[in-house]
Amino acid sequence: xxxxxxxxxxxxxxxxxxxxxxxxxxxxxxxxxxxxxxxxxxxxxxxxxxxxxxxxxxxxxxxxxxxxxxxxxxxxxxxxxxxxxxxxxxxxxxxxxxxxxxxxxxxxxxxxxxxxxxxxxxxxxxxxxxxxxxxxxxxxxxxxxxxxxxxxxxxxxxxxxxxxxxxxxxxxxxxxxxxxxxxxxxxxxxxxxxxxxxxxxxxxxxxxxxxxxxxxxxxxxxxxxxxxxxxxxxxxxxxxxxxxxxxxxxxxxxxxxxxxxxxxxxxxxxxxxxxxxxxxxxxxxxxxxxxxxxxxxxxxxxxxxxxxxxxxxxxxxxxxxxxxxxxxxxxxxxxxxxxxxxxxxxxxxxxxxxxxxxxxxxxxxxxxxxxxxxxxxxxxxxxxxxxxxxxxxxxxxxxxxxxxxxxxxxxxxxxxxxxxxxxxxxxxxxxxxxxxxxxxxxxxxxxxxxxxxxxxxxxxxxxxxxxxxxxxxxxxxxxxxxxxxxxxxxxxxxxxxxxxxxxxxxxxxxxxxxxxxxxxxxxxxxxxxxxxxxxxxxxxxxxxxxxxxxxxxxxxxxxxxxxxxxxxxxxxxxxxxxxxxxxxxxxxxxxxxxxxxxxxxxxxxxxxxxxxxxxxxxxxxxxxxxxxxxxxxxxxxxxxxxxxxxxxxxxxxxxxxxxxxxxxxxxxxxxxxxxxxxxxxxxxxxxxxxxxxxxxxxxxxxxxxxxxxxxxxxxxxxxxxxxxxxxxxxxxxxxxxxxxxxxxxxxxxxxxxxxxxxxxxxxxxxxxxxxxxxxxxxxxxxxxxxxxxxxxxxxxxxxxxxxxxxxxxxxxxxxxxxxxxxxxxxxxxxxxxxxxxxxxxxxxxxxxxxxxxxxxxxxxxxxxxxxxxxxxxxxxxxxxxxxxxxxxxxxxxxxxxxxxxxxxxxxxxxxxxxxxxxxxxxxxxxxxxxxxxxxxxxxxxxxxxxxxxxxxxxxxxxxxxxxxxxxxxxxxxxxxxxxxxxxxxxxxxxxxxxxxxxxxxxxxxxxxxxxxxxxxxxxxxxxxxxxxxxxxxxxxxxxxxxxxxxxxxxxxxxxxxxxxxxxxxxxxxxxxxxxxxxxxxxxxxxxxxxxxxxxxxxxxxxxxxxxxxxxxxxxxxxxxxxxxxxxxxxxxxxxxxxxxxxxxxxxxxxxxxxxxxxxxxxxxxxxxxxxxxxxxxxxxxxxxxxxxxxxxxxxxxxxxxxxxxxxxxxxxxxxxxxxxxxxxxxxxxxxxxxxxxxxxxxxxxxxxxxxxxxxxxxxxxxxxxxxxxxxxxxxxxxxxxxxxxxxxxxxxxxxxxxxxxxxxxxxxxxxxxxxxxxxxxxxxxxxxxxxxxxxxxxxxxxxxxxxxxxxxxxxxxxxxxxxxxxxxxxxxxxxxxxxxxxxxxxxxxxxxxxxxxxxxxxxxxxxxxxxxxxxxxxxxxxxxxxxxxxxx
Amino acid sequence: xxxxxxxxxxxxxxxxxxxxxxxxxxxxxxxxxxxxxxxxxxxxxxxxxxxxxxxxxxxxxxxxxxxxxxxxxxxx
Lengths: 1432, 76
Prior knowledge:
Distance between the termini of chain B: 15 Å
Strand content of chain B: under 5%
Largest sheet of chain A: 8 strands, mixed
Mean pLDDT of chain A: 84
Helix content of chain B: 40-55%
CATH architecture of chain B: Orthogonal Bundle
CATH topology of chain B: Non-ribosomal Peptide Synthetase Peptidyl Carrier Protein, Chain A
Number of strands of chain A: 50
Structural class of chain B: mainly alpha
Radius of gyration of chain A: 43 Å
Shape of chain B: globular
Mean pLDDT of chain B: 89
Low-confidence stretches of chain A: 1-60, 143-171, 173-182, 1416-1424
Shape of chain A: globular
CATH superfamily of chain B: ACP-like
Strand order of the largest sheet of chain A: 43-45-44-46-47-48-49-50
CATH class of chain B: Mainly Alpha
Helix content of chain A: 25-40%
Low-confidence stretches of chain B: none
CATH topology of the domain at 3-55 and 88-279 in chain A: Chloramphenicol Acetyltransferase
CATH class of the domain at 3-55 and 88-279 in chain A: Alpha Beta
Oligomer: heterodimer
């Protein structure tokens, strides 16, 4: 039973009588006129009901407003009325006899004296107000309920002389709050008494009751807002429990109440009259508060705090995240041993500080080190009463002030303590300004941001009170709501040392975590107290000895003996073991181990002749190909280290790397060579016949070389923060260890097939290139550029039975979104690295490819690809760890003082062990700065500083948390914004530049640049497009900002630093309906842009990146453009030509109307190796652009040509008969394809033309493989219909664009409509528009006069099956003109809609397998998906 | 031994870690870093060394040396 219940239940006892002495508080209170036992007649029930008898509206007495301090607490409660978080509670343990009757009288009297306690808080139109409460009589009545609850002391207070009682029946009211005009609500006095001595564990029983009571929220509007209980837990031991709502009481107030209670009880016990009340009035608090808020001081205080925190610092806390306060809190109580406490006091005095100053400084040190932050903001609860009448008022006054400290490992503890002393002194001068108001002033409230990290609540008031001689000690049970972490520190006068409670928000901390923080803090505090306060704090370590051993030794127990081999040695050994096994597959061709080895050996000997040997560098600038892999092997075989130069990089970048690395020779191809600067060094082109001849003369056996594991194996360049990329030199021993570990962990076997798709300049490619060759497995090499195309990858993985593949997580996301990804179930292992792997992506992977293992790896280029690994387990929660160290590798998570961080504490990740790179090529200073002495390893060992923030889990796995600097990873690519900023700042007209990654839409990370214009630049502000184009000439595509904003000035923080958070987001609202396309290519491009960007419409002049494109989407667009137009395009071209119109110009594909309107329209021209072309015949309007939708669905190697009517581009004669027209077209198509087999498609009139052409081809002895008709009907069915007029001709124009003719008869209306729909037909030249009308009429005439002959073969037919007006049209009419089957597919649409995107895709889906088939000896049979109809 | 104004100033300066010459008699000592712990220390020290009976609240209510002097029985 709770205090509440009992308090209310007691009201049923109508025998209540008696009262308190009235001298202190009763007076002529509002309740004076109330009948005796007002409370006693209240109905049974909760206090809210007991109070319900009062008038609903307060009378003329409207009580008092709340102080600002109270308002904060009131508001917090109003946000969550059922929350008990605002409960504060204390337990006073009394050692000695207690008279419960006297005790409750004492309580009652003190409550009567403390008018601030005796209120309820109601919401009124003027805001919350506090109204006085009258209290029912004090009675130590036994608690009803289970008999065991009933103590033996069932005392009823004896009635005094009623005549003396001016407040009948002991009701206490407040004249201070109530003006006396209205009766105050009377509530029963909340007191509960229980004798628990017969319990097995009386203390536990008391704890259970208090715990239960603490979980009950107060009803602010009803009151009372306090409750008492007295438990007898021993013959001579009592527990006095009190709970008070924080809106009416603070910690100091408790001490006043307790002291007065002891005083009054002691007096009553001695039979004496207690002294007069020492308390001030609530009204004084309110008046003081009101005066302060109107004062000049208030304004000064406000100015102080807003200035102090104008930069709105990020506030570190131990959890690393924030949460709303929970309804409860976790508490861990600990004590600092008396000796240590004594030393803390001595230290404080030696530093001319107080012990709380030392505790606060130690906490700041702990928070700084545990959060890896130099800046720490602690919250300091202040009693806020100094120099105020509030010193004598038990009420809610306290405030929390932020204390901002800078903790540098080089500073001493004495300096830190001095900072605390001065900081608190400054804060104290402005201590009345409310914490909530500071947050509001800074705009933190709305953002839900914290002003402070942990609270350090020092309570120096020990009240070693005595109750009639019985000694007591007080224990706080709840100090109010816990936002994050509150460290409550109590001084105990009894010499038992400091009590240090850690109260944690359970939404942020787990119990063991809280305990670990507390344990470490006490250890740190002890170390501080015992150490030299004038030594740098960097020598103090956070972890306990056990933790230190765990993180340094146990988690790093990775020693594994490996033989002293190189990267290449095991490959040669494998080639000797399995010469005939397939080593390499590229574009369907396979190379055996022997074949590959021989080619590499010959090239190696040539390279040796050119000076390549151990310790030298050979540059390899080749696209993904067999030659690339042969060359890499050859460089290694010659003993050299290879320097990969990605041919996709801009010339400027390649030139820089060549100059910086100074390789002895360059292996490249003709295309790349042009981009390379003349270095004077030997250049080898594998395609060069002269080289081929020399190679043929070299022996094919493994060459000899004086190579040791210490020699460099490769040099890979990474982005450099100062604007210059840097070459990382990796020795053979490092990468050999990496591959040996990988084999032991993942067991590649001869049947495995590894996909090589990572560009050679990215170090993940290193294991891709070489792992398979060391194990007898097969390497499947993707097309150049193919690594960005998920459909290509899925196809390749499936077709080539790939078992092992790597994805950068963002590419994995894209891949998993590809429907065909689910078919890649032959995969045996998938690796992720390069950037943080989101848990959602890992989970999606498990959904799409159940049963396929997914491994998350991590490592910088500076440590031989990967140094950690973690197997992803489906259903796991939290961030995906980067895992545990690989063989012979140590990981250190270190704090700012380079001390190891315990598990759970974030720090910077350092790497040590055999996989470290030698350093940066030719950059000793840079190398020395990043590769530093390893203080934890063997003498002379080094460790690499990654700049990555990380945290060890309790199981040793490491979690990646972000960067310590501005370096970013975008889609796996490491980017130093400084490098891009340097390039931007070097552009003409740019004064300053800033580059960062924005994620304004979740999941869409965009590299965004900001520049300010240089003063006095001719031509005004720089043009973002021009800047982007300029950067594209110097930087790799992934480093060219997708958004570039020109700002007049950069936003600055108050301390004059660039305020990155205030940089504006790019405006994407400008995308509108621009100019419509002029050619089918522009139309196709605009459509592809829209598809890839996921927007309904893209104008031909709209910029890809302005509409939200990023480099990943760019890669997708490039792949789509390649498929649709057969045009090879680098992603970089999109930066230079970002709009459909610009891209069309750049592609030079059918770029002008003249070509677009020619008789033969190369929708996708024939290229070497492409398939038999498909010829498509124009519909009635004469233009074949409508077929462009087929392109994307037929595959990039399917050429498509349109046949178009004469007289479109230039005035020409039109054919007089269908046969004449067919003859003309036949001549055109023979120019492309002189002989059969032919493949023909026609829609509408085009179908009739196609049939006619097919018949003529057969008559000429050619084979026709495919005749496909789209809703085309034989002449017979048209013969008797009238020839259309001009209006119908406009209708034909609409039909060609894929629309059903509407009511528009006006040419302008039709053109407007087409423009709106983004059709290129809207932009036809005047002549063409006129001629289309003539063509439509002419075609109608030819149709009606034509006589069909018979086509020998099957007819593939597509019927627009939606009900139509021309119900007489019937495909069976073809029966007399076809010898074979009529294979029909119904499409649910009208005739004009057949060329709309979804329909044409369906058509293409049916045609694709027929087109993909190599021309068969027999006519192509009907695949099962088309129902066969009897043609006859 | 009775407290003197000089002694009060010296003791206040001591707990504040300041020079006595820098502690004025008529200024709010809170601005000089006086806090409850330091007041308690003074209350204790003066009770021990000078037998005074002032309480924490007495001193905290008007934190200035000139206000304390009469409470502590010190000659001005």
